[in-house]
Design goal:
Elements lengths: L14 H34 E3 L5 E3 L7 H4 L5 H20 L7 H6 L5 H35 L9 H7 L2
Length: about 170
């Protein structure tokens, strides 16, 4: 059986608008997170290099920041997305009490879980997708960090620090 998005949203919701807003929020969160990490990584890499008078780049003897410090604020946008999804779930529930008072229709249905399904399904799926995306991006960021940083500039115990972020 194939479900439509309108089957898991409150009655009268604009499924196309919800789909576009959620997709835009998810994509924007991923792009902002990646950009934030890249800027932080390049800023940290800039601190370990110096330039000679002739313009040649060389390592200045300092250590690279730990991965946790480089990645520090990269996932804040996903935290915001999760908070917005929780607020969306609350809005879905409140919307049954507004307008045509569809809460009375929802309570008369044979399936008592229908109200919670329509209120929570999309937000919960988006929260799970956000968490999975953060885990995948974290692995990608670890790979980028290890590949971008010269080996002699790693701080002691840097490997332990990488796995601590999970």
């Amino acid at each position: 059986m194939k479900y439509k998005l309108s089957d898991v949203l409150p009655a009268g919701s604009n499924a196309l608008l919800v789909k576009k807003l959620i997709a835009a929020g998810y994509i924007l969160s991923a792009v902002v997170s990646i950009a934030s990490f890249i800027f932080s990584l390049f800023d940290s890499l800039g601190e370990i290099y110096s330039y000679s008078e002739s313009g040649e780049k060389y390592l200045n003897g300092t250590y690279m920041k730990y991965f946790a410090h480089v990645r520090e604020n990269s996932f804040d946008i996903f935290r915001l997305l999760i908070i917005l999804m929780l607020l969306f779930a609350v809005y879905n529930f409140i919307s049954h009490y507004m307008g045509s008072k569809s809460i009375y229709t929802m309570r008369r249905l044979r399936n008592p879980a229908e109200l919670m399904t329509r209120c929570l399904f999309v937000p919960v799926i988006m929260i799970i997708a956000s968490i999975v995306t953060v885990l995948i991006l974290n692995l990608v960021f670890i790979g980028a960090y290890v590949l971008a940083v010269p080996g002699e500039t790693f701080l002691p115990y840097w490997k332990r620090d990488i796995w601590r972020v999970f």
